[in-house]
Amino acid sequence: MPRTALRVFARLAYQVASWQWSPYGSKFAPKKFTQPSLLACLLVKEYLRLDYRGLEALLVSASELRAALGLTAVPDHSMVHWFLRHKVTPTLLKRVRATTLRLFTRRFRRGRRVGALDATGFARRPASRDYVTRRRCGASRFSLSSLLVWIRPQGICAQATRVGPGSQSRLLRPLVEETQAVVPLDRLLADADSDSEAHHQGLRETCGIESIIPATKGHRRVRSPYRRRMRQHFPRRAYGQRWLVEPVHAVLKRKFGEALTARTPWQQVKPSLLRGITYNLYRAVRLGLVVWRWWRHRCCRLSITFAT
Question: Which domains does the chain have, with CATH numbers?
Fold first, then answer.
């Protein structure tokens, strides 16, 4: 991995965390580490697929990384784990993910905004598949992560995690409402698991979103108007963009791992949300959005200098 990309990622993670969190939790807190710096350390840990002791060893040996994270000292591995368990909340992580999503809205502001809903599973333990198969220790249970992805920049707009297997149809409305607060969608693509007349009515009549969901449930005779339209005149060409969600799932598993390190289901929610934020920051660095913002700021300063 290039050192420049890691340094840019760490600096961007620290800036995004600073936009949504105050430096200290209270006036009596020890002024040794800031909350944005510790949250950025967690994002770097997910980015490099490290454990807490590996993160501590990396920070000890990398002074440039400490400067990018705003650290004057190296936090202990137990302190980072305590910070994730007691200070970081799912609500805060949702706000941070919405902030990362605004990095894409500045460049991809034109054109139709199309979102796609899909789910993927993560293993609940980092053990090998052969060990899980032989011992039969919870192989049928996994962590199911439902993602609503903005198709054009391939950024994660909303995310929800629960224990699988199961249906994700009940999560469609909360994920859409969370996305509409940041990126107003024009079209939503979902698989047959979300096939419901109530979903079509809520998306089209309440939210103003064109819903494309294949009507495969039930008998051939469909009486509801929206599902009958999907069965008779299904837009296959427009629905073909939904496969662009699969590269997002592939990057999440190939780059950041197929398993979650937390043990209990309620503790696996935070690492899953951290992984979604890490992916958005990684995608922004890959697309050059950070360099573009820096170049625009520099050009504005030069124009002001020449004008004076």
Answer: 3-88 (no CATH), 107-264 (3.30.420)
**Tens of pLDDT, residues 2-29:** 667 899 999 999 999 999 888 988 888 8
| pTM, full prediction | 0.87
The DSSP string of the chain is --HHHHHHHHHHHHHHHHHHS-S-SSTTS-TTS-HHHHHHHHHHHHHHT--HHHHHHHHHH-HHHHHHTT-SSPPPHHHHHHHHHHT--HHHHHHHHHHHHHHHHTTS-SS--EEEEEEEEEBSS-S-HHHHHHHTSSTT-EEEEEEEEETTTTEEEEEEEEEESS--GGGHHHHHHHHHTTS--SEEEE-GGG--HHHHHIIIIIS--EEE----SS-S---SHHHHHHHHS--HHHHGGGGGHHHHHHHHHHHH-SB---SSTTTSHHHHHHHHHHHHHHHHHHHTHHHHHHHHHHHHHHHHHHH-
Residue 303: pLDDT band with limits 50, 70, 90: very low
**Which has the higher per-residue pLDDT, 224 or 283?**
283
